[in-house]
Task: structure prediction
Amino acid sequence: MAPDVLAFLQRDAIADDAPQRTDATPTHRFTWRPVEIEPLPDLPAAELSGKRIAIVNGRGRTVERVVATLTRACAKPGVFAPADGVDPAAAASAFAAQSGPFDGIVDLGIEAQFSLDARDQWEAPLRRTVALLQACYGDWSQEESTSRLFYLALTWQDGLMGHGHGPLVQPLGGLWAGLAKTLPQELPNCNVRVLDIAPDETGRVDQLVARELYRWGRFEVGHRGGRRHTLVATRDDLPADAAPDWARDDVVLFSGGARGIGFLAACALAKRHRCTVVVTGRDALPAGDEPWLALDDAGFKRYGLEQLRQATPGRSPKAIRDALRQLERRRDLKASLDAVAALGLPVHYRVCDVTDAEAVRTLCDAFGDRLRAVIHNAGIDQPVRLPRKRADEFIGIARVKVLGFLNLYAAVRNRPRVDCFVNVGSLTGRWGGMTGETDYAAANEALARLGWWARRDAGERVVKTIAWPTWDGVGMITNLAVTRRYVTPMRIDEGVRHWLAELANPANSATSGSGEPMYMGAVGRALTPIQLRGFDAVEGLPNLGELATRRHHAGAPRRFRPFACFSTRYRTAGAPYTHAFRVDGRAAVPASLLLEHARVVADWVAPPGGERACLQEAVDITIALDALADALDGHGDLALDTDVSGRTVDDGWHVTVRCASLAARVLLDATFVYRSHPPGGTTVALPRETEDGPARRSARASWRDDLLPEARWSGGIAQAKAADPAALWGVQGVQGDAGRVPCPQLWLPVNHLENVLRVLLGAWPADGEPPHAWRIGRIVFGSAHAGDADMLLRYPDDRFAIADRAGASIADLYDARLAGATDTQAVTASAT
Result:
């Protein structure tokens, strides 16, 4: 048992006076709701023409209609429908070789009405899907274009992704939805759309498919009543002191629950309410006298190595490793149950395979009317990239969630005393999983949608699916460091409090959103550009501002290869900052805002292997002052093309950014230097030499002081206000189809940088040639936040420093100077 889990069990972490940690990113509760979004254009996108598209699954008549409509749109559809008894993998390889390479897949999924008795209707279609994706994987994994590839999965629920109040036709489409939302982690340039069709829209599904293609962005879109919808999430906290009211004689049954977050919840329930909690699993409890059970961790490791050395052709290393993993599970099980027994908690273990309907019913029958709640917690996560997943393994992981639900729900469906049925889901289903989790994400999203179906079927019974994040050090995650790159893990004590509150809170037809609560902390840097556009802003996320900033500057991505390159077309419309600066009488983009854009997009090209990368410096910066006006289009809006590339150099990870106008005139070149540790906290030194006179104003340039205020100089020190992001971007309070559009942050002290340029331009000879470029040899970043910028300091030798009010360094600029077109004339602030 993990030491932190044991420590939790030994203290009352849910008591009111329990110590609360404040050193970690909080995890908040969110619920989702459907909202109407912009309608589709009447005609298919022009990009559809000529695309090779594979059609898989669906009813014959639907397939025919989709093929005909795509053909009329000048696409080249082909149908993958292997005959019964033919291996899907072999058929998919032959199909791709003959009709590919494919630009996209339209997966029609399962159209048939759902029934609890249709236990395996999903398996054959899912095998075809996996086989076809594996056949395309090699080509798709090499693609750098962000617009060519797609996977569109149709689901047939209610047109609102299950969040409506009417009948829900087929929840098992969640298998394809979870798979789709995870694909961009493995295939970074695969656009995805999960298209949910209401019964009243099935007559025009072919037209909807054709019109949705090549209009990428949101991952989930529904059609109902002639209108288009998506899901948005908002923060929705529960009362902190909420807890269920089960008594000592009541039984709460967990499928799984013998380890991980289920075990923690089981122990907390037993400790707080003294109700009987039964956890289950497939493994038999050790008798207690097994030799491998008495070994310590080091001894068990040696035992495993000795077993591997004894491998034979009839007893392969793989079989031995599988057996050792089972022994390790049994060791952990015995340790956990011994720990709760020592604490006197009424937690008991029963062997039960949740995919065995008869075993599940027998177990439930054994508790009679004492059974009050069922928590479907069982699950398997074996992260392996899709090409290496065997179809049987993919199906097996889905079975635990899907068949487990069907068996448990059928066993208690007609038991009125069971007033609570809770599915333990995952962010992998709702948000998309990590690399290697296509099957686990598919299983969890199917579970959530089955929960929505059951909620309609259950009458007054509470039914909900909780989408949990990773818990810190608990559960099935094998590499917590990798997990942190996706989302911050939740603390154990925090998670258990949320667990008890969820079990106390009803979810019924009057509170639709509470049927699928999601818990989430800060989103990590592992998101791809396509994923970042897949969901609308989630108000209340701890790092919402960071996500909004990355999404804003990501623009319309054109090319992406993880750890290598990123290209985008970046536009802004109506942003006030495009009117904040004029040079030689022409409106121009402020140089500092161009550098801000470059600084943000540089983060898209991270070092290989997911190594930690902290921005330390920017070097060799050149901004073409005489071209800044060319960055604005005929409407006065910014429009530019940005190319980013990364490489390893002796002193760190170097990311080079080039921004150019749409006419290909270079506006900015810069290189950003990342290292494994964050910038140090330093304090700026006061300039030794000061001047009493203020900085001279330039006749060539002017700034709007309401957006980029002028600094007030006193000798070599000036005070300046930090720029207001909302004023510059002009997006504060703007409402979109799916709610308020968050304002991007400013990651650089842009107004202070503009005031450096003011000083340099003021020192440029009035009768000389116009300055061509602003060059900065190096910017060294400090640890202070750009939004706290207050002081600007000027030193000899072309150096400036930017600091907060306490003198903490934000940025030190070295060799900051202007250059003429011939590069023979250079003037610095110290030359005057």
Observations:
- The chain has three domains: 34-234, 236-287+325-531, 543-831.
